[in-house]
Amino acid sequence: MMKRVEAAAQKEQPEITHALPEKPRWGERLARNAALAGLLMVTVAAMRNAELPNGGTVLTAVRQTVDGEWDGHLGKISFVGRFLPETVAVFFESAPDAELTAPCFGSLSHAWTAEEPYLGYTGQDKRVFAVAAGQVMSVYHGSDEEYILRVRHDDGLETMYYALSSVAVSEGEAVSVSTCLGQALPEGAVIEVRRAGRAIDPTELMAERTESAP
Question: What integer is the mean pLDDT of 101-124?
Answer without folding.
Answer: 94
